[in-house]
Specification:
The structure is a single chain. β1 and β2 form a beta hairpin. 74% of the residues lie in helices and 3% in strands. The chain has one domain. By secondary structure, the chain is mainly alpha-helical. It starts with a helix and ends with a helix.
C-alpha cells in the first residue's frame, strides 16, 4: 500500500509541472486527482496478483496436495484464494481512497451509484486478476519462468493502462494497447463512480470486466482441475 501512496503524494504533485490537467469522460481533473483514483484500481490488481504466488508456493512446498486431501474441491481452493486476496485488496483500496480523498475532493461527485460501482470494480477486478495469476501459476513449472512471467504481466498491467495517464493524446498504437488491458476498464469504472461520470462507454467497460472475470475464473478452475500434484 506504500507504493500507491508515494505515487499519489509525490509523483502526483511532482508531475503537475508538466501535466496541467487531464480529461475524463468530459470532466476536467487535475493530475493528482486522476492519479489517486487510478491507484485504487492499481492496488486491487497488485493485491490479487499475489494469488498466483500463493498457489505457486502451495504447489512447490506440497501444501496443495495436503489441502486437496480435505473435503474441498479445487474450485473452493482457487475461490478462497481469490476472495482472501480480494478482501486484502478492498481494505487497502478503501484506505487509499480515504487518504486520496485529500487529493481529489474538489472533483468528487458522490451519488447513489458511487459505492455500487466501486464495489463492482473491486469484486470483478479481484476475480479477474486473481484468476489470471492462478492460470500463470498452473501453467509455469520453473520458478525462474514463473517470476519472469508474473513480473512481466504486472508491468504490462500497471503501466500500459490508464491508471497513471490518460489514453487521450497517446500514440494510437499505445492507446489501443491501453484498451487491451483490463486494468484500464477497472480504473475507468472507479473514476466514473467517484467523479459522477457514468457514460454509455463506462457501462460497456463494466460489461467487458464482468465477462472477462467470469471467463478467466472458469478457465482457472478448469486448468486447476486438470493439474497434477
Amino acid at each position: 500500500m506504500v507504493f500507491p501512496l508515494i505515487y499519489i503524494f509525490v509523483a502526483g504533485f511532482a508531475y503537475t509541472s508538466i501535466i496541467d490537467g487531464v480529461s475524463f469522460e468530459g470532466r476536467d481533473l487535475d493530475y493528482p486527482a486522476f492519479l489517486a483514483t487510478g491507484m485504487i484500481g492499481f492496488n486491487i490488481m497488485n493485491s490479487t496478483l499475489v494469488t498466483g504466488i500463493i498457489i505457486w508456493n502451495d504447489r512447490r512446498h506440497g501444501m496443495f496436495e495436503q489441502i486437496m486431501s480435505g473435503p474441498f474441491t479445487r474450485a473452493h481452493y482457487i475461490l478462497s484464494s481469490v476472495i482472501t486476496q480480494g478482501i486484502v485488496g478492498m481494505v487497502s483500496a478503501a484506505l487509499i481512497s480515504a487518504m486520496g480523498y485529500l487529493v481529489y475532493f474538489d472533483h468528487v461527485e458522490f451519488g447513489a451509484a458511487t459505492i455500487p460501482l466501486i464495489v463492482f470494480a473491486a469484486v470483478t477486478g479481484s476475480v479477474l486478476f486473481g484468476s489470471i495469476a492462478s492460470i500463470i501459476s498452473v501453467r509455469i513449472r520453473s520458478s525462474e519462468g514463473f517470476n519472469v512471467i508474473i513480473n512481466t504481466v504486472f508491468l504490462f498491467f500497471a503501466f500500459v493502462s490508464t491508471a497513471f495517464y490518460p489514453a487521450t493524446g497517446a500514440p494510437q498504437s499505445l492507446a489501443i494497447a491501453f484498451y487491451l488491458n483490463p486494468l484500464t476498464y477497472l480504473v475507468d469504472v472507479i473514476r466514473a463512480g467517484i467523479f459522477g461520470a457514468i457514460t454509455e462507454f463506462v457501462l460497456i467497460e463494466m460489461a467487458v470486466l464482468a465477462v472477462l472475470a467470469a471467463g478467466m475464473f472458469v478457465v482457472a478452475i478448469r486448468m486447476l482441475t486438470k493439474l497434477d500434484y
